[in-house]
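quick one: heme C bound model?
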Amino acid sequence: MRNKSIRSLFLAEIFLATTAFAGSEHKNLQVLSKDISDADLKKTMEGFTEQLGVKCTFCHILEQYEKDDRPHKADARRMIKLVLDMKAKKADYFGPRVKDAVITCGVCHRGKAEPEPFIP
Ligand code: HEC
Ligand code: HEC
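yep, here:
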């Protein structure tokens, strides 16, 4: 019984996350391109959850994605700028072998909300 309600909560969250992008006009993009397609925005946001090991609600209030109420959203904006800069200046920062797809939040975060300090 308990499992069942947890499962339906989980499904509800997936449903809400999916409808967030459908045909919506994005109201408050300050760093990402304002012309980003729904599909690319969805891929980007899902990427954040995977690369940081968090849910949408780490940065957002469900269904109010344009709002800036969650401090982690501001952190994420700084970080998006960082990654866009690393991509734009790829040739300065990285060797020619490195593909764009490698330069993500995951490079540092590796599935954690806060990158773990490396103690040799
Ligand atoms: C690590 C933080 C983070 C996570 C996790 C995250 N987002 Fe976002 N999201 C952002 C930031 C930052 C922006 C604004 C980007 C900008 O200003 O260009 C944004 C913007 C959006 C927007 C556009 C809102 C608008 O109208 O301006 C939608 C929709 C959205 N996110 C949905 C989601 C969904 C659904 C998930 C989970 C699958 C998710 N986000 C996970 C940080 C996050
Ligand atoms: C070059 C390494 C690096 C990259 C790439 C990176 N981050 Fe971070 N991130 C950090 C460090 C270090 C911290 C902790 C210090 C701080 O908050 O500035 C951090 C902190 C954060 C926090 C605050 C976490 C907390 O618990 O307070 C968020 C949210 C975040 N990053 C999101 C992102 C997102 C989203 C991306 C990809 C767009 C990203 N980061 C890419 C290094 C990185």
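The mean pLDDT is 88.
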